[in-house]
Amino acid sequence: MRKPISRSEAARRLLIIFPRAAFDAVLSSPLAGTAVAALVHVEAVCGKDAPADAVHWARPSTVMWTSDEVFIRMDDDSRRSYRDAASRGSKQVDELHQAWGVPYQPVYKENSRETLRDETFRGWREHGALQMRPGIPTSSSAPRWALSEEFADLFDPDLEEEAFRKAAEQWRETHMDPGARLKAAFALDAETAKHAVIVDLPDGTKRTLENSNSSLIIKGVVESWAPARMGKPVVLAISEPGVKVHMGDERMLQILKIKIDVNNVLPDVLMADIGADPVQFWIVEAVATDGPVSAERKKALLAWAARQNIKADRCSFLTAFLSRNADAARRRLKDLASGTWAWYADEPGHELAWYSLTPSADDL
Questions:
Q1: In the chain, is it the N or the C terminus that has fewer CB atoms within a 10 Å radius of its CB?
Q2: Do residues 72 and 96 lie in contact, with contact meaning Cβ atoms separated by under 8 Å?
């Protein structure tokens, strides 16, 4: 049987598949989350070419009659027992709970069934998320509902967040018309923007970064550390995970003849202190999980700087952490390259320096 998914996680994923700003809330309600969890629990999933007789069809009552105990029991035998009992009636479900030695307390009342059947199931079916067994009269109470296999795949607990979001986007591409996809895209962008990190650059412009600890560190570097450390700071580029690069002062990039190529080694933040003579470049790594300016990383960044005609003695390096108590700081502070600095976003008035008392050529 498929790995079961919790009701709360199923509801959370439904909010991403069917964002509330674009779709009826019944498609992603807590009841809808329970329905997904229950249908996966009893393996009511229909493959594209699966014979109807080979599918474990369910009824709305299969969802309504679930209990906390049903979802706690994730072994295949218990799941089959509940599926068999729910296919026969509420009396059999009650008897099953007695056999388990627990009182039967369904998670929903019977009068919630119409909302599930007439609104949630109907909406899911319109988008191809739910299949109805062919040949069953609409007036029949026989089990006739199952999740479409591709839709059920989105609720695999082993699917990590990034992979899930990509799979959800692909599912919408396949199953929704252009108008629905556009509405979903706008809703998700708006939701992302609500939680985005806004960085105020020294030139008065702003950059919007994804909501992450890395972005919070970058925000601290640009808004707190740079004004205290530099005479006249200029942000040349900010890069985020993946290939997303936010250009800073493009005019200054042209004057300095620096080319930003996302396919090359890039620091998280590239800044220049144009108040220094000569101009000093600061290469910053924001470390939320890993990636400090180690000796190896410093060497690669210096090679990148050389390709931009930036001399090594014009380059300074900073590793920025969220906090000295952060796991990344405790693990990676020991790996800092000689001749670099470290800074903590929650202690913006201090800076650590790590340098050799007897510098060699490798420390330059």
A1: C
A2: no
181-209 per-position pLDDT tens digit = 777 777 777 766 677 888 999 988 888 88
At residue 157, the 3 state secondary structure works out as: coil
- DSSP for 259-276, written as a single string: ---TTS---SEEEEETTS
Local structure of residue 111 (DSSP, 8 states): G
Instruction: Tell me how crowded residue 221 is: count the other CB atoms within 10 A of its CB.
Output: 27
How is residue 246 annotated by DSSP?
E
Q: How many CA atoms lie within 13 A of 107 on its CB side?
A: 20
Cis ω before 19 (30° cut-off from 0): no
Angle at 163 between CA 161 and CA 166, to 5 degrees: 110
Residue 100: both structure tokens together: 């388990």
Q: How many CB atoms lie within 10 A of CB 173?
A: 10
pTM over 0.70: no
Please say whether the beta carbons of 321 and 312 come within 8 A: no
- Distance linking the first and last C-alpha atoms of the chain: 60
**HEC letters along 312-326:** HHHEEEEEEECCCCC
To 10 degrees, the CA torsion angle through 305, 307, 311, 317? 10
Which pairs with CB-CB distance under 8 Å and at least 24 residues apart come from 51-55?
A: 52/133, 52/134, 52/135, 55/131, 55/133, 55/146
Long-range pairs of 242-251 with CB within 8 A, sequence gap ≥ 24: 244/210, 246/207, 246/209, 248/201, 248/203, 248/207, 249/201, 249/203
Residue 301 phi, psi dihedral angles, 5° rounding: -70, -35
Surface-to-core class of residue 48, CB atoms within 10 Å of its CB (0-12 exposed, 13-18 middle, 19+ buried)? exposed
3-state DSSP call for residue 6? coil
pLDDT, tens digit (0-9, with 9 covering 90-100), for 232-279: 999 988 887 654 566 666 677 777 777 776 666 678 899 999 999 999
Query: Maximum CA pair distance of the chain?
Result: 88
